[in-house]
Amino acid sequence: MVSNGCMPNSFTYSSLMRGFFQTGQSQKAILLWKEMANNMRNEVCNSVLIHGLCEDGQLNEALIAWQQMLGRGYKPDVVAYSSMIHGLCNAGLVEQGLKLFNEMLCQEPEYQPDVITYNILFNVFCKQSSISLAIDHLNRMLDWGCDPDSVTCDIFLRSLREKLDPPQDGREFLNELVVRLFKQQRIVGASIIVEVMLQKFLPPKASTWTRVVQELCKPKKVRAAIDKC
């Protein structure tokens, strides 16, 4: 590219950095980041760097990059925040991770925690047998309009089976989650949970099936599905 006069932009650099991190060549990714001109370092490149360092277990280096990013006036995006929270929690610095999470809650909508951020906390709380705290954050996530995914389900199912005495299979828990989502007309999120339940051989209750069928068989949705076919 360079020899043909086509100068790479920040997205090109970030893609190459991501590739280096994914193939275990973190030093090459760091060197590439250092070689970039200051005006080409944007939020995307910083997020890739911080995510890669945290995934590689280089928390101190990630913290340095984080401080440098803030010092240059760049604002962390959801990926950067989530990566730092994950790195801090993995290092046992859960309180610092929660501090960053609470900081996210005070940001604009585009910087709010997503399901990946919440899953990081769910995993930490459940490993610490703090299932009630995980459920509190699950309720907060739902109240903020963020839907759980299959990873969320797996985290809670594993905890209910391994951390409770007597253990629970999680069917009741997921069924209530489906009902709650349907009541709020969050059909996509509810459908994901139903699919997980079927995959885990935890069929929803008959009353829940009624809600599912009624929602899926609404005339407009049936007509749309037929048109799509």
From TrEMBL:
Gene3D superfamilies associated with the record: Tetratricopeptide repeat domain (1.25.40.10)
Signal peptide (residue range): none
Keyword list, A-Z: Repeat
Keyword Repeat in record: yes
Placement of PPR repeats on the sequence: 9-39, 42-76, 77-107, 114-148
Source species, domain of life: Eukaryota
PROSITE patterns: PPR
Pfam families named among the record's database cross-references: PPR_1 (PF12854), PPR_2 (PF13041)
InterPro entries on file: PPR_rpt, TPR-like_helical_dom_sf
PANTHER family: PENTATRICOPEPTIDE REPEAT-CONTAINING PROTEIN 3, MITOCHONDRIAL
Family per similarity comment: Belongs to the PPR family. P subfamily.
Name of the featured protein: Pentatricopeptide repeat-containing protein
Organism whose genome encodes this protein: Prunus dulcis (Almond)
